[in-house]
Structures are given as C-alpha cells and as structure tokens.
Amino acid sequence: MGVISTTDAWFYDDGPANVFSGIGAQLEVGREHIAGYGAYHYEWHLTGSSDFSVRGWDIGLKAGPDIAKLGLHPFVLAGYYNFTFEVPGQLLPYSGLQYGAGLIWNHPSSAMELKLVYRDPADVEANWQLLGYSGVTATLNAQVGYHFRF
Fold first, then answer.
1. Helix, strand, coil shares of the chain as percentages rounded to 5?
2. Domain 2-148: which CATH class?
3. Would the pTM count as exceeding 0.85?
4. How many Å is the maximal CA-CA distance in the chain?
C-alpha cells in the first residue's frame, strides 16, 4: 500500500503536449516474480486550462526477477486503465490497455518504485477530436511511488 506521484503526457502530431500531474494511492500484492496492483489517480492540467483534470484507476500485473524480494529489481507490466477527462461541463471517459517497465527497490518495511507506461491513445484521441482539436499520437505516464510493505 502506498502513495504515488503521477504524470500523464498526451502528444500530438502538430503541436505541444498536454501534461497532467497529480497524486494517487496504490495497493499491490506480490510473490516471487509477479505482482498484481491497482491504483487510483487524480491529476491537474499543467500545460493549459486549469479547469481541465484527469481522474481514474488502473490495474495490472508486473513481472520481473524476484520483484517481491528485497533489493533493486527491474520489471515489465501490462494492464488496463479507465479514466475520466474533466472539462468544464463535460466528463469524457477514456480507457484502454497499458504496457510499461520500471524498477522497484524493496526494503524490509518499504519500497520505492519508478514506472514508465505507454497507454493506448484511441479513446483520448476520440475525446480530443470531439472537443475540436487534432488527434493524439501517444499517451505516456510516469510514476514514482513509495509503498509500505507488510
């Protein structure tokens, strides 16, 4: 169980990125070489309207050599995300598959984690076009977390 600092970036073929950053809570259960996790996020828009925000959850599986044991370990992950893009007067849902990699540094009673995640941009692109803007070419997420181990 822990807290995360999370940042999402939506990249476009013809303009600057939209960047959201915020906080979240994550629960993870692991054994040996595999771990399952779930997290809830809330992020504020940093590169545009302060009226925009993103909130939602993601779940997934992480796999790597001895990721549940003490020490520094690399891992890969795959999962699913379900978020809502909040703009004035509208809640625009988006979801999809996500893939990534990271490092976890496990101590006896805590752990620190860094994750880089690629998220399927199809729903984000459809929502952005609904608002009258150009399409999204990629959505990336970075997270730094601090977790308590039991």
1. 5, 70, 25
2. mainly beta
3. yes
4. 51
